Hints:
Layout: H1 3-16, E1 32-38, H2 41-53, E2 58-59, E3 68-74, H3 79-89, E4 92-97, H4 100-107, H5 124-137, E5 142-149, E6 155-161, E7 169-174, H6 181-196, H7 200-207, E8 210-214, H8 219-227, H9 279-291, E9 295-303, E10 307-310, H10 322-340, E11 345-348, H11 349-352, H12 360-368, E12 372-378, H13 393-413
Parallel strand pairs: 7-8, 7-9, 9-12, 10-11
Antiparallel strand pairs: 1-3, 1-4, 2-3, 5-6, 6-8, 10-12
Helix pairs in contact: 6-13, 10-13
Amino acid sequence: MDLKRGLSLIFLVTCFGLPVISGEKARFDNYRVYRIHIENQQQLAVLKAIEQLGGGYSFWSDPVKVDSDVDLVVPPHKFGEFSEIVENHGLRASLSVSNLQSLFDREQPKNRKAAVDWTAYNTLEEIFAWMDQLLVDYPDVLTPIEAGYSYENRPIRGVKVSYKSGNPGVFMEGTIHSREWISAATLTFVLNQLLTSSDADIRRIAENYDWYFFPVTNPDGYAYTHSTNRMWRKTRKPHTVVCLGADPNRNWDAHFMEAGASSNPCTDTFAGPHPFSEVETKSLSDYFTSIQSSISTYLAFHAYSQLLMIPYGHTTEPLDNYNEMMEVGTKAIEKLRERFGTEYKVGNIAEIIYPASGGSVDWVNGTHQTPIVFAYELRDDGTHGFVLPADQIIPTALETLDSIIVILDEGEARGLHRR
Length: 419
């Protein structure tokens, strides 16, 4: 190894914790999570400045508007600095997690199986192996599909479920943000139900729609959350010497960089240098374009906050079929609540969570006028944040499937499905 490269590697490991040493995994011992209520523009500006600082700070929900709550991860070496910021600017910060590593330690069961059975979260390799077996078990119903390859040359794999020709299409996008593990788990559970359940409602939607499942649309990031850093959100393409990845849900060509996105490559919400700069979003958009004429429903799955969101993220104005989708969404979350009492809210992205442009659902709705487009923010309400315990996978997936049935039935009743 030459001296220049060696010094570069030492710099990367020391300052940024990058996985140069094989097998080393980030830990978050004594990291804290604070919930902060933003009361005024000055406090919002302070939190935006923290977002640009890095140094171990990490937002679980983005600081973009006044009178909203954000969850901020604070590392131990920043406790003193953060206390001063809270005092100097009158922040209302309540401690919600005192040791983040303890959440990670409890996230998975102690004796998990290397199989997809929804009692634990699975790696990318385990999900792919399970999909391979499904293709063997259901050759008359399933077709392998692929949207392309990631920056690190992993396939963006999916399966198509089709029981007969002429069905309207449903596109299921999962885990575009890699740390949102409940997204992939929910999609694989729903896929399995469409193949195995004898419930009449599930059989009806299974056999009368063509389903395009992509459980993990950010495979590099998802693999990295399992191997190295559980909190990684972005893609893995280098954008500076030291900062990797862009936010793949800010990278679509839909009012790019207008709201809720960063031009700083070191932040979690970095939108990329231009729309579709990330091969993952470009490949997925190209694939969707190739089949869009038969797709009537696009559902994207995120976590967390318990929200059912409709486009758009750049404005709170009720655009396109906002009112109709609000009616559909309201019925869907009412059905979702019935099984376990889980409370969701429905609204457009900018009004119900925060302004965020460049997202997949905005592009799908705005570019292709797909009639039914929703983005889920799955469990929970913030108690565990992204680290939802594995024993909540099945309840989350069951109630979500209940709501999907309503969305499709309402679409059918309103004549919105493309055939």
